Amino acid sequence: MTTADDINRALADAHRHEWAKVLAATVRVAGDLDLAQECAQDAYLSALETWGRDGIPRNPGAWLTTAARRKALDTHRRAAALRARLPLLIESGDTSHPRGYGNGSPSPETQLTEMDEIPDDRLRLVFTCCHPALAREAQVALTLRLVCGLTTEQIAHAFLVSESTMAARVTRAKKKISAARIPYRVPDAHELPERLDAVLTAVHLVFTTGHTAPTGDALVRPDLVDRAIELCRVLAVLMPDEREVRGLLALMLITDARRATRVDDAGQLVLLEDQDRSRWDRPAIEQGRAMVLDALRGGRPGRFVIQAAIAALHAEAPTFADTNWGLAVELYDLLLTVWPSPVVALNRVVAVGFRSGPEAGLVALDELEEEAGRTLSVYHYLPATRADFLRRLGRDEASAASYRQALALVENDAERAFLERRLAALLKS
Amino acid sequence: MAQYVILIYENESDYATLSPEGYSQVMDAHNRFAEEVVARGGKIAGGNALKGTETATSIRGDVVTDGPFVETKEALGGFYLIEADDLDQAIKIAGMVPAQFGGVEVRPVAVFPEG
Description:
A: mainly alpha, about 65% helix, elongated, B: Alpha-Beta Plaits, 6 strands
C-alpha cells in the first residue's frame, strides 16, 4: 500500500534529483524556458494525483519527463493557430536552425514517438544558464532556479535580497535568453574551456556563498553547499574528460570536509590553525584527494585543479605547523600563472608568512599592496593578514590598528566576532 | 535567422589624430571584415559609418541642442545590421568588427507580430 507519505517522499526525491533532467528535456519540446518550467511543474503536480492512484512508477524521472514533454506538446497544439504570435524560440518545423532550441527535432510529432528515449539535456540547460552574455549574478540565480529547482524565495533568502528583486533578476535573464536568442546547446570543443570556466565559476560561487555566507549571522548555508556539490557531481558524470570539473568537485569536497570544525558551539569562527583535525570528514578528503591526483595528470592543470591541490595539502597535514608551506607557496605561484588575481596573491603572501616567518610575510604583503592595493582596498583579508603578521611579531599597537581597519570592512558577523576577539586579546596584553 | 545590430563605440579623439595611413588601414580592416562574414556564412544586411558627434544635433520635445544625446568618451561611430542564427554567432561576428579605439555592442532587432 502506497501511503501519502511515500508519495511525498518519492516526489521530493524526484524533485531533488530529477528536476534538471525533466526540465532540460522539456525545453527542447517547449522551445521556451518559461513554458518548459511550467510544464515541468505541472508534471510534478499531476504526479501527486496519479501516483497516489496508480502507485509510484519504477522510473519516476522518466515518468515526469514524459508527462512534462507531453504537456508542452499539448500546449503547442492548442496554440497552433496562435503560434505566429507567440514569442517562441523556434518556429515550428524550422530545421534550418540547427543550433537553436530545436536542435535535432524536426517536428514535435516526431518527438512524441521518441519519448522512450529521453535525451539528457542537462548540459545544454547549464550552459544556457551560464552564458557569458548574462551577468554573473543572473547566471547563478538561473542555475539555482532552473537546474537545481530552487524556488525564487529560497534563492532570494540565500543571497539576502528581497524575493521581488530575485524574481526580477530571473525574469530579466530569461527574457534576454529568449529575445537575444541565446542558443540551447553545449558549446563546440574550441570554445568549451572558456564557457566551462563560466559554468564552474557560477557553481563555485554558489558553493562559496554557502560556505562563507557573505553577510548575516551564520557562517555556513549548508543547502547551497550541498546543491553546488551535487551539481558538480552531475557535471563530472556528464563531462568525464574535463579535469577542471573534477578539480572543482575535489576542491569543494575537501573544503566542505572541514564544515563541522569551522565554527565552535557558540557559532564563533575557528581558524584553520585551531580546527580540530580529528573531526574533519576523512572519507570526503580522501575522495577529493584521489580526484586531485587524477586531475593533475595529463598536462597543465587549470585553476580549480590547483586550488584543489592546495586544499588537499592542508587537509593531509597532521597539524597546522606540519603543513608543507614551501609546496603551498609553489602551488600559489603556479596558480598565479593561470589565474593572476590579487586575492590569490594575498593567499600566497599568507603562505609565505608561514614558510619564512611573519617578517618575510610583511615584506611580501608590502609588495602586493603596492601592486594591487587599490583592488584589494575593500577586502578585509588584506588588513586582517597584516594584523596577524604584526601580532606574531609582537607589534601589538600596529596590529590593533590593522584589526580595526579590517573590522571596518568585514560584513560577515562570525568573521567580525573573530576579528573583535583578536583585537580584544591584543588590547588586554 | 535573426537580425542583430552591432553598434560601434570608439574614442573619437583617437580618430582625430590618426594618420592617413592609419585611416586607410581602418577602411581595409572593415572591408576585410565584410569579406570574412560572408566567408563564414553570415550576412551583413546593412550598416554605415557616422560622422563625428560634433555634427550631431539632439532634439527632445521642442528643444533643439547641439551635440549628441549622451556625451560619452566612446561615442557611437557606426553600425552594422547583420543576420545570424543565434546570439553566439552574432557575438562571433561582432568580435570580428574592427574597433581598435573602443568596442562594440550587439542588440537583437525587435520583431513585432503581424496584424
